[in-house]
Amino acid sequence: MRRPAFSKNFGAWCVILGLAVLLFGAGPGWAETLKVAQPNQQLYPSPDFAGTPIGPVPVDAAVNVIQQQGDWFKVDYQGKEGWLPKIAFPQAESSKLSLPGLLFGGPVKETKSDEVALAGKGFTPEVESNYRQKHPEMKFAQVDQIEGLRVESGKLQTFIKEGGLNP
Known about the structure:
The protein is of the alpha+beta class. It folds into two domains: 25-98, SH3 Domains (SH3 type barrels), CATH 2.30.30; 113-162, no CATH class. The protein contains eight helices and six strands. The chain has a four-stranded antiparallel beta sheet, with no helix packed on it.
């Protein structure tokens, strides 16, 4: 008895379907619930700010996504359908899985040189001096006091050993 061609290729079809879901993510036909994370959001009748808002949508409100069009989501909120801008849902972009994202990582975020200096070298004297100049109202007496504390080498080694720390 011959098996249908579909059953022979069932595994291959499952792999193809799985890859398609990873590549394209949840599409308009997929039910998705998002929480509004930005304050002062309004539900609009069309995907632009030109229309008269239908009503407010508070922070932490759960909305059901009907479709996405550019930077707008058509949603159902308490029985009302309308559009919310993508900025209302910062988690929407970060939660989507995509094959390129899994393979190559997420988008590169720009950092300031001061942040790199702090992360790479710590709070260097140059960075501290620059910060002091920009913020003369700040009091650094406690910072200076903590920086002046010294611990004997033997006590530090004992602490590391007893704490099970890797130096």
